[in-house]
Structure formats: C-alpha cells, structure tokens
Amino acid sequence: MSTVADMKSSVYEGDELAEDGNVSVYERLRDDIIHGRLKANERLKVAELASRMGTSTNPVREALQQLRGEGFVIMTPNRGARVRPIDQEFVRDIWEIEVLIEPALTRWFVGIATMADIEELERIQAAIEDLNFLDEMKHSNLDLQFHRLMYDRHYNRHAVDLWVRHRQILWAISRGFPTSLSRQSSVLEEHRELIACIKAQDADGAARAIARHVEGSGRHIVERMRLDRRRP
Hints:
By secondary structure, the chain is mainly α. The chain has helices spanning about 25-35, 45-55, 55-70, 90-110, 115-130, 135-150, 155-175, 180-200, 205-230; strands at about 45, 75, 80-85. It folds into 2 domains: about 5-85, Winged helix-like DNA-binding domain superfamily/Winged helix DNA-binding domain (Arc Repressor Mutant, subunit A); about 90-230, Up-down Bundle (Four Helix Bundle (Hemerythrin (Met), subunit A)). It has a 3-stranded antiparallel beta sheet.
C-alpha cells in the first residue's frame, strides 16, 4: 500500500513504473492499466502475467485482488479477471470519494494550523504561481507539497493513504490531457481561497473550498476525456 512517506522523495514515475524491477506487481499492473498497455476489457490470465513479470502466480493473484478492490479489475464467475475501462465513470467515482475525504482532512488541519504552516503554504503557492504551469512535473510536485502539508499529520492514516492512491491515479490519467487556461486560473484561485480560509480559522469555508477544488479537477479531467473521444 502506498503511504505519504513513500512520496517524500519523488512523486510519480509514470511510464517508467512498468520497467522498474523494484516496484510491486500491483504497481506495475496498475500502471499498465492506467496507461493503456493492458486494454479495456482485456482478459487478465494469472499464468501469463506471472511469466511476463518474472514472478510466481501468488503475487499476481494478490495484485489482482487489490486492483479489484480499487476498481481497476472486474472479476466475474467462470470468466476470470478483466480490465475495467478507464473511462469518465471511473474518474467520476474517484473524485466523488475525494470530495468526501479531502474536506474532512482539511477541516481537521484548520484546527491545528500554525503561522509557520500558513507561511509554508504561502511559500509553496508563490512557487506554483511563479512556475505558472510551465512544467507539468514541477507543478505536480509543488501541488503535492501543498496538499501534503495539510494532510500528512492527520490521525486517520487509512484516509490519507486512500487520498494518496487516488491522487496517483488521477494524476496518471490527467497526464494525457492538457490543462485548460480556465482550469489553470481556477486552480490558483482555489488555492488562494483555501489559504485565506485557513488564516481566518474558517473550517467550514476551507472544507467548501477544497471540495470545489477537487470537484473542479475531476470535472476537468472528465471533460478532457470527453473531448478526446470526439476526435476523429
């Protein structure tokens, strides 16, 4: 299972994951699904996957069960496992869960935030604005730092770990689509609003701000996916 600590040295390896022998079978399969190397509705045969990955069948079975729990794999009686399409409904399901999780994490953070925390959020936000979306990876690193500062100390590690996994998934999917100028502007404004609410010790306002932020990001990915499907 990914944890916040796992993300301190780097964010996401993207396409390199599938070729890195140090990552788990689960991570390699998940990355292959997200990036389309395993196609939608493709049958997942344990023996074939184990042979391709140079492992025994047990790690593959365990990985498929975990991927099933996260919605990447569908298992049906007498038909085995197959890849769930990474479609608009898949993204919607994830962001709807995040709209529940992140406001709760943010509300808790408002109650413990110090001036040093706020100053660090402002420092990261200034770096995000200076970068102005010119480098996708650098922006993602900074955005991760921004949100981790709020969530990393939360007592509910299951919620934080789920946020980490969902963020990885959405980031990997969104890499295939450019961020519109309108969404870029909204991201910056939503961050500023969030900082203002934290400064004012407005937990309700901060929760509403992060909910809008998460929903806006999810809707943007879905819209880009929809537009991509319309291309000839």
